[in-house]
Write a structure and sequence with these properties.
Length: about 475
């Protein structure tokens, strides 16, 4: 018998009680040792804990649908608080006596002076610290500052309050992009990022319907209050109900900001992708800043009617574009990852030929249909471009990649898009009257052409691979 006896763990069915107890103790000691090593190193040891996120399909113990649902709410509030100033631009212009150039400054440039630069600093913190906590704090800040916009006594106070909104929203993209990248497998990231883009469309809908209705009935100041307050509740939801997912590449080491950003700036596919999206966002942000004002001014609609009709239609079109764009990006990237750049190239180029005639049209119905169709085309590109940037970035520096992308995008897109439209509109107004704003918006759609070219060469520079990284 002694010769045939098998000791643990060769025959688990023959374990004695003492052997089973010893095995359990061995597992506990091993787990504790691995946890201590993980804590000391700042990253998980192999086998120490199950990989959440991309490996398991969950976000650190939080169900993936719930996690993405909260990300959707955050994205919705991010865009609603940013876009409300475009919804109420005309009554603000009338009360403060502003020009279109000044509207462009407060609606875009004031935001862009703070948002991208602070985003880089927050991103480096997000690559090393708890992203959930940073996101919750940033959401609370931008929501409170949105409410302060509603008590502005004049232009400069409003501009300063808008920079406060920008300071809070600077943490949105680095945190959400990094959280999603560590919670979803590469093959499904484009679809996951479409949740954020659908949230952007939903934010436009909330700003248009709720903001427009409140502004129509209670004034533009109340609209800022109505949209800022819910963010404080969602901030608590983020903090108390989400968990921080495991970083698939570990936390970034301190003092590597310059090296991380430098490596990204030397990456041709990253730079070309970001350049393409920056040119395109000159169109998107310009349209967001002046679209409602155009229909009020050129077609005689009320603020509430223009916000409700155009805002609701554009939000639905944008949501559909985001979902279709995310699915298309995943589908095409499974065959060749370069389509994460080429798909955006095709869609933004198509948007040019839809948007230009829409804002030169005389008829209201044609203008509305064209504007909504342009929004649909404009949103098809975004999930794929997000997935491309996260695929290029090192896993330890995903928040930094998102922030650098946002930095460049917003300096160009948000900083210049509304301002260029305002300048052109003011220059043309003495000769063409109310048609000036429509001509300025139509001109802005031409920036989609260099955008498409940049996206095309981003795919060429990234090179072929059967699947995204």
């Amino acid at each position: 018998m002694g010769a045939n006896r098998t000791t643990w763990p060769e025959r688990a069915g023959d374990e004695t009680p003492s052997a089973r107890l010893g095995a359990a103790c061995h597992k506990i000691r091993r787990a504790l040792g691995e946890d201590m090593r993980m804590a000391a190193s700042g990253r998980p040891e192999p086998g120490a804990i199950p990989m959440s996120g991309a490996a398991s399909g969950k976000a650190a113990g939080t169900s993936l649908p719930y996690f993405l649902g909260v990300m959707f709410l955050v994205s919705t509030l991010n865009m609603a608080d940013r876009q409300i100033i475009g919804i109420v631009a005309e009554p603000i212009k009338n009360e403060f006596g502003l020009s279109d150039t000044m509207l462009g400054l407060v609606g875009g440039t004031a935001f862009a002076l703070v948002y991208p630069t602070l985003g880089l600093a927050i991103a480096r913190a997000a690559d090393r610290l708890n992203r959930r906590n940073i996101l919750a704090a940033c959401l609370a800040v931008w929501s409170a500052m949105t409410m302060l916009c509603g008590v502005a006594p004049g232009f400069w106070y409003l501009a300063v309050a808008r920079t406060g909104v920008a300071a809070g929203e600077a943490g949105y993209a680095p945190c959400t992009h990094s959280l999603i990248a560590d919670s979803v497998s590469p093959e499904r990231r484009s679809s996951a990022f479409s949740v954020l883009v659908v949230g952007i469309s939903a934010g436009g809908l909330v700003a248009s319907l709720i903001g427009g209705l409140v502004a129509e009935t209670h004034g533009w100041r109340a609209a800022f209050m109505a949209l800022g307050a819910p963010g404080l509740i969602v901030s608590a939801l983020v903090y108390f109900t989400l968990k921080e997912p495991v970083r698939l590449g570990g936390a970034a080491r301190a003092g590597r900001a310059v090296k991380a950003f430098g490596a990204l700036m030397k990456s041709p596919p990253f730079l070309l992708c970001v350049a393409g999206s920056a040119f395109h966002l000159m169109v998107a942000y310009g349209l967001a800043a002046f679209g409602i004002a155009y229909f009020v001014r050129a077609h005689g609609m009320s603020v509430g009617a223009a916000a409700a009709i155009l805002g609701a239609s554009a939000a639905i079109a944008g949501a559909l574009g985001s979902l279709i764009g995310g699915a298309a990006g995943d589908f095409l990237a499974k065959r060749d990852r370069r389509w994460l750049a080429w798909w955006p190239a095709v869609t933004v180029f198509a948007a040019t030929f839809v948007g230009v005639p829409a804002f030169l049209a005389q008829g209201l119905v044609f203008a509305l249909i064209g504007a909504v169709a342009a929004v649909f085309c404009n949103t098809l590109y975004q999930p794929a471009s997000y997935a491309l940037v996260q695929g290029v970035a090192d896993p330890q520096e995903r928040a930094s990649a998102a922030a650098l992308m946002i930095f460049i995008q917003n300096l160009v897109g948000l900083g210049l898009g509304p301002l260029v439209i305002g300048l052109i509109s003011d220059a043309l107004a003495p000769s063409v009257g109310v048609a000036a704003l429509g001509m300025a918006i139509a001109f802005s759609f031409l920036f989609n052409i260099p955008s498409a070219i940049a996206f095309y060469f981003a795919g060429r520079a990234w090179g072929r691979a059967d699947k995204p990284c």
